[in-house]
Amino acid sequence: MKNKVWINNRFVDADKAKVSVFDRGFMYGDGVFETMRSYAGVVFKLDEHIKRLYTSLAVLGIKPPYSRPRLKAIVYKTLKANALKSAYIKVSVTRGEGRFGIGYKDEFRPNTVVVAKDFEGYPDWMFDKGLSAAVAGIRQNELSVLSRVKSHNFLTYIIARFEAKDMGYDEAILANTKGHIVEAATSNIFLAKNGAVITPSLLSGILPGITRATVLGIARRLGLPVREKTVSYKDLLSADEVFLTNSLAEILPVTKIGPKRIGEGSPGEVTKLLRISYQKEVIRAVIR
């Protein structure tokens, strides 16, 4: 069966799924997106993802193309059209087609694309061994409102990932203009130190991750001390554990940053506890 893609109120075969070259998402990165994951046919934290999408649309001044209930229904229709239960789902909304130049205030019609593909998961070694990472040279602008928007302009993260890969590392970690650690290329970042769970604050210039918020909630329920604060490079290297969070990977351990081994050089107990607890939360959501 051919993969089906939702584009502007209809399904088309994936090999025929197209938007205009004049679409502002293509021309200027003028759009936003959300990536999420379904388990046994249930999209985890779908309401939270849609809320963040609509917040991002408001920041960019793009009129939402659908109501929130309608968009939720479209996501599930896309899963059903592709007969998927465990899936990677991406919802993209651009400003639409327009004239050349960025200053026009035309009445744009947003383009909406929903893609769902079978999710095969990440390789076991990432969870068993942990990732290596390097702090990239490119900086995140913590003063920009766009640092809190999941926009189509992903160049900062792309350049950071390329830089890390070229140096032989699995992932890139970004700092802001003040040199404070903020996030990884496609994930939020956490530290564990003396049993406490630490993550950069929203004021550091991070994307307010859905999985990040979930993990913070889990940590608090487990009685772990939680701190959202400014994180220095020294804090990062002296941590007992480091891990990354995003909707697809859930929780990924980082066991090496640059040449420095983190903790014992293997996934730590706090990371393992939070990963198991996160998976239990997913199971509760699925069987609810």
Q: What is the total tally of β strands?
A: 15
* Mean of pLDDT: 95
Structural class: alpha+beta
Beta strand %: 25-35%
Q: Give the helix proportion (percent range).
A: 25-40%
- The overall number of domains is 2
Describe this structure in words.
The protein has 288 residues and is α+β, with helices and mostly antiparallel strands. The chain folds into two domains: 4-118, Aminotransferase class 4, branched-chain amino acid transferase, N-terminal domain (D-amino Acid Aminotransferase, Chain A, domain 1, 2-Layer Sandwich), CATH 3.30.470; 124-287, D-amino Acid Aminotransferase, subunit A, domain 2 (D-amino Acid Aminotransferase, Chain A, domain 2). The chain is built from eight helices and 15 strands. The chain has helices at residues 24-28, 46-60, 68-81, 124-128, 155-166, 210-221, 233-238, 269-287, and strands at 4-7, 10-13, 31-39, 42-43, 87-94, 111-118, 131-140, 171-176, 181-184, 188-193, 196-200, 226-229, 241-246, 250-257, 260-261. Strands 7, 8, 9, 10, 11, 12, 13, 14 and 15 form a nine-stranded mixed sheet that branches. Strands 2-1-6-5-3-4 form a six-stranded antiparallel sheet. The chain is globular, with a radius of gyration of 19 Å. 41% of the residues are buried. The model has no long low-confidence stretch (mean pLDDT 95).
